[in-house]
């Protein structure tokens, strides 16, 4: 075959390959009066965040040539927020009557569709949802529907059922023993049952495992404020080891006392609530790198949750003391709210309580960005403006470092390079 013919044939062979290459992702430039970088803690004036596809390309002083510019005026750009403790399948009215008794799983899932949309529009682009409280694996379904683009919502990491004991937290009490009722949590009264439940939850899609290490407010001693302990150190270690075998982490609901200590000594990655943690345990948490989601908002009077007796004021006072002692001890505090007990879309109220208790505004911002991303092992993906991270970006009205309430005034939300809320 002549050389010229071979050359032409080779050219024709490569043309379809060249034509099949995807076009380069378009650049989008977000421009605003301020850009807040939680890593450095600095606010830059008149900054630009350049987006390529679903990722952050760079933070620059001006928009590159050819980019689609979105001018957000006198707003502050920053990474999307992370809520480390949510319940997308709960609503405020569920705090009065357990929803497993009054609502179908289908109905609760529909409520969840609305909840994740509200939370995303409020600037929370990633959330760790710590159990469905009796809605089965509907949290898995919501996560998957979000990931496939079926419904709008944050990046969701879910825990399905929490592990509890007979008579413990989320095991319905005071009911007719002759009637079989659904339970809001998985009953695991032995080490073996706990291990089996971890396997079942992983099988059906859990990203995290949640363990009730103590009871709830109804289990708190009204004199000493010590909560019911629901686990031993050996049981916690078994749960953590089994979860780790499947490359999952464990979060423990724990108010304080021996149950909280067992959770920390047993190796959980995060402790939830923790209103009555003592100084020795806080030091141990700091040494071990145990994260803490204090969820201050859910226990505040404006939430309206019922509490036994008159212990509410004492619990809030203990929570404040614990929060301030945890900061002093160097505990890794992560933003978490328990939203669902109060209306979805209002989680940013937590920032105000954190600031009122003495947390500097930049640390409050980091608790919902860089530190929360560390908890989730997603430091390079979310909670940052670093190149290569997901383009999860929000813009707020005001400077959060000067006025923490600016985080309650989200005007623009982008998730994965797609705009989901505009001014």
At CATH level 3, the topology of the largest domain is: TIM Barrel
Largest beta-sheet characterization: 8 strands, mixed
Overall radius of gyration: 24 Å
Tally of alpha and pi helices: 12
Q: What's the total number of strands?
A: 18
Q: What is the fourth-level CATH superfamily of the largest domain?
A: Metal-dependent hydrolases
Beta fraction? 15-25%
Sequence of secondary-structure elements: HEEEEEEHHEHEEEHEHEHEHEHEHHHEEE
The CATH C-level class name of the largest domain: Alpha Beta
Multimerization state: single chain
Q: What is the residue-averaged pLDDT?
A: 93
Terminus-to-terminus distance: 65 Å
Question: pLDDT under 50 segments (min length 5)?
Answer: 3-19
* Form type: globular
- Proportion of residues in helical segments: 25-40%
């Amino acid at each position: 075959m002549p050389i010229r013919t071979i050359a032409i044939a080779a050219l024709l062979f490569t043309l379809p390959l060249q034509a099949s290459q995807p076009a380069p992702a378009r650049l989008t430039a977000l421009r605003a009066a301020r850009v807040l970088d939680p890593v450095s803690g600095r606010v830059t004036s008149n900054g630009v965040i350049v987006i390529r596809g679903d990722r952050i390309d760079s933070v620059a002083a001006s928009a590159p040539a050819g980019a689609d510019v979105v001018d957000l005026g006198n707003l502050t750009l920053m990474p999307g927020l992370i809520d480390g403790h949510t319940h997308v399948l709960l609503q405020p009215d569920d705090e009065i009557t357990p929803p497993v008794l009054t609502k179908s799983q289908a109905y609760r899932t529909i409520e969840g569709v609305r909840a994740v949309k509200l939370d995303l529009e409020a600037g929370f682009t990633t959330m760790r949802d710590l159990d469905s409280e009796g809605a089965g694996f509907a949290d898995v379904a919501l996560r998957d529907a979000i990931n496939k683009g079926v419904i709008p919502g944050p990046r969701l990491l879910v825990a399905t059922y929490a592990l509890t004991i007979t008579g413990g937290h989320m095991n319905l009490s005071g009911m007719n023993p002759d009637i079989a009722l659904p339970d809001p949590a998985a009953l695991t009264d032995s080490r073996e049952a706990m291990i089996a439940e971890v396997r079942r939850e992983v099988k059906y899609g859990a990203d995290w495992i949640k363990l009730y290490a103590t009871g709830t407010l109804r289990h708190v001693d009204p004199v000493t404020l010590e909560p019911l302990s629901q686990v031993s150190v050996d049981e916690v270690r078994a749960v953590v080891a089994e979860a780790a075998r499947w490359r999952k982490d464990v979060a423990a609901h724990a108010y304080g006392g021996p149950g909280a200590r067992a959770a920390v000594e047993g190796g959980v990655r995060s402790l939830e609530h923790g209103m009555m943690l003592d100084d020795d345990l806080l030091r141990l948490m700091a040494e071990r790198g145990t994260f803490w989601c204090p969820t201050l908002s859910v226990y505040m009077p404006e939430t309206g949750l019922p509490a036994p007796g008159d212990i509410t004021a004492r619990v809030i006072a203990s929570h404040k003391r614990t929060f301030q002692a945890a900061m002093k001890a160097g505990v890794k505090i992560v933003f978490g709210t328990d939203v669902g007990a109060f209306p979805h879309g209002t989680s940013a109220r937590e920032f105000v309580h954190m600031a009122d208790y003495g947390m500097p505004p930049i640390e409050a911002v980091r608790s919902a960005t860089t530190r929360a991303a560390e908890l989730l092992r997603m430091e390079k993906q979310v909670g940052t403006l670093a190149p290569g991270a997901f383009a999860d970006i929000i813009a707020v009205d005001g400077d959060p470092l000067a006025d923490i309430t600016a985080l309650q005034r989200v005007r623009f939300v982008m998730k994965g390079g797609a705009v989901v809320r505009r001014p």
